[in-house]
Amino acid sequence: MRTHSVNPIAKLLGIALVIELGILIAVGVLGWRMDWETAGEYASAIELAGIFAFGVGLLGIKGNWDSSRSFQYQYSLSVTQESNWERTKLTIQDFMQTYTFMVVMFIVGGFNLIIGLSISLIL
User: Fold this and answer.
1) What is the pLDDT of residues 71-123, one digit of tens each?
2) What's the average model confidence in pLDDT over 27-42?
3) Contacts of 15 (CB under 8 A, 6+ apart)
4) Widest CA span of the chain, in angstroms?
5) Alpha-carbon gap, residue 6 to 10, rounded angstroms
């Protein structure tokens, strides 16, 4: 039986688009509840959401760095029954997950900035 593997880039873009749609819906609801009347207000909020997404991506790296470099974490890795190779693979996997999160958040932030600036320029 063949399994279909998903292209990693397509998977990243799919995740980013889902997050992007959630952000745009949240900004739309926020604007509706706060009675925003101009497209400029929506554009500014979308741009701020993009900057926020960049920050969340950077904080994700810092959080992983702080937790994986702590003494307790390093000590717990050294006393396991796993081989050095297994521990190295786990460390690489942790780094890949962290940087994947950052890349997704940077894509989302870029989409938001492009959408916000496009609205500002068009209207």
Assistant:
1) 777 677 677 777 777 877 877 887 787 788 889 999 999 999 999 999 999 98
2) 94
3) 104
4) 62
5) 7
Instruction: Tell me the backbone φ, ψ of residue 30, rounded to 5 degrees.
Output: -60, -45
The answer to whether 116 touches 50, Cβ cutoff 8 Å, is yes
pLDDT for residue 22 = 96
Q: What is the dihedral of CA 90, 107, 51, 35, to 10 degrees?
A: -120
Cα–Cα distance for residue pair 68/50, rounded to 1 Å: 27
Range of the domain at 105: 53-123
Q: How many residues does the chain have?
A: 123
Q: Is the pTM of this model over 0.85?
A: no
- Is residue 94 within 8 A of residue 68, CB to CB? The reply is yes
- The answer to whether residue 16 sits within a structural domain is no
Residue 10 is assigned to a structural domain of this protein: no
b/e string for 39-51 if b means 16 or more Cβ within 10 A?
Answer: eeebbbbbbebbe
